[in-house]
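Case study.
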Amino acid sequence: MLQTVEKAAQVLYLFTPERPEWGVSQVAAELGLPKSSAHAFLSTVAEVGLLYRLMTGRYRLGFRILTLSQSLLHNTPWREAAASEMEKLRHATGETVHLAVMAGGELVSVIRLDGTRPDHAQISPAGSVVPSHCTAPGKMLLALRPWAFVGAVLDQHGLEGFTPNTIVSRDELRSELLKIRERGFAYDIEEYRAGVCCVAAPVRNHNGETIVALGITVPSERFHAHKEALREAALAGAERISQQIGFDPDFTQSGRYWWTSVEGREELRPARPIRSKRSKDSE
Amino acid sequence: MLQTVEKAAQVLYLFTPERPEWGVSQVAAELGLPKSSAHAFLSTVAEVGLLYRLMTGRYRLGFRILTLSQSLLHNTPWREAAASEMEKLRHATGETVHLAVMAGGELVSVIRLDGTRPDHAQISPAGSVVPSHCTAPGKMLLALRPWAFVGAVLDQHGLEGFTPNTIVSRDELRSELLKIRERGFAYDIEEYRAGVCCVAAPVRNHNGETIVALGITVPSERFHAHKEALREAALAGAERISQQIGFDPDFTQSGRYWWTSVEGREELRPARPIRSKRSKDSE
DNA sequence: CAAAATGTTCGCGTATCCTGAACAGCAAGC
DNA sequence: GCTTGCTGTTCAGGATACGCGAACATTTTG
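After joint prediction, the assembly is written out as follows.
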């Protein structure tokens, strides 16, 4: 709903570190809009301060972003607690440790700690957006959401293939998610980047809901040599974080459909009774 | 234009560190919208990841903000150069030094360095939004914009009074801005916070345009005792920063109306010839 | 100097958003 | 307990505001 706002967000999200500057025509071409519409969007978003207009008529992100960012970090105290636990995990394993949440159907990295080994896995920095269907934390978080949600995400972002191992079939992904849900952890065996694997474990709050996922990312050879140990480390780490921050009231964030199940039978216990019984678990 | 997007931004800006959580009814009451409209806005903005929906139906900022913030900081290299110069200034004066830009008609603090003296002036942290009509950097930036822009800003945000010294009359503000423009610096004599004064100087790029302002904020007694010295320090500091970062191409940010003048006669030289001759210097 | 690109403006038609009223859960209230 | 206020949510009709295409102004390319 409110497609105008959705499109404005799309425009905003075009501004990445790799491509920080956009003009009207470029935006129009990229999003398939008429130039005049692109102009209206850029102009309006700039007017409210989220973009800044250069003299040339091109645009960059505006400093009002900084304000929102401050507000966000200020009321996310659990970040620090999680970071300190993750530091221990990095020290123990020497590998790259990261924490991610889902936002807007994609995976956003919240904390990244690079491994201490010289050949630690390189992953994208905190704040990055990565697809959810081909990363361990992404699949972990998808697995604990109802299929209706997963379907909506896939409709919107598709199942892009990055390596030969990437799951690009909906059915295959579905059974993978069911398996992950049952086991309680997720693997990514070179599904996003060749030569890089990852294990992810869910961080739960006191209601058993999973909002964020912890991942340990490791170069393939070493990953396969210590698969079980890494998995246990991830699970234990996620568990410790859960205990530390699970009762933080700020941590009860959730999407629209937390409690419903993947299959339709197996059901997650919600914190409070379900209110609307929107059982159109379509597709 | 695009009032839908504007309202969505208004909704987003409600989420401050002091008030990080909002429900549908609260937003509706605050912005004077029907509940259903507030619902649509919150719901849509959450869908794109800029907000996050709690289980209770209340909302918080979403982590997609983090992504934008990363992009912004990544392509704002002049922050570091400015910060190092400001550090020198803090060391020399012992006072609180800050740097601010205008975004969405209000003043956004980009860098804040607390003074080293035990009784240094306390100001709001980086990322904060403060009014522009009653702060020294705000008035400095307004003064270098055409009156049409100033008028639009005042129409939108009004002239709220914070202390007996706050300028609340449009005419009075106008002559104040003209004076500031002529002199090249701005004072704030307890116009925003009682007992606190500030001097601001413009940071210019190589075209002579002013995008950011440097401020030194000081408790009133000490301010009046060293008024001229502080002013010179601010001007010199701003000048050094200008020379360091003035040629950074990222620093040529500008609004819609940079070049036109306050009065209609006196004219700022633009980098490139003026294109649109929108001379509706209304009001 | 010509030509293709840019950002910008304007007006019309229609799709989209805004609204108000009704619904469903929840938390207190005599 | 049942009721009264409060949440968030849904729906459908009517009016507004958005999106489009064409034309303009300017700059950069050839």
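Observations recorded in class. The two ends of chain A are 20 Å apart (CA to CA). Residues 1-4, 23-25, 35-36, 39, 43, 56-58, 272-277 of chain A lie near DNA strand C (CB under 10 Å from a C1'). We will return to this complex in the next lecture.
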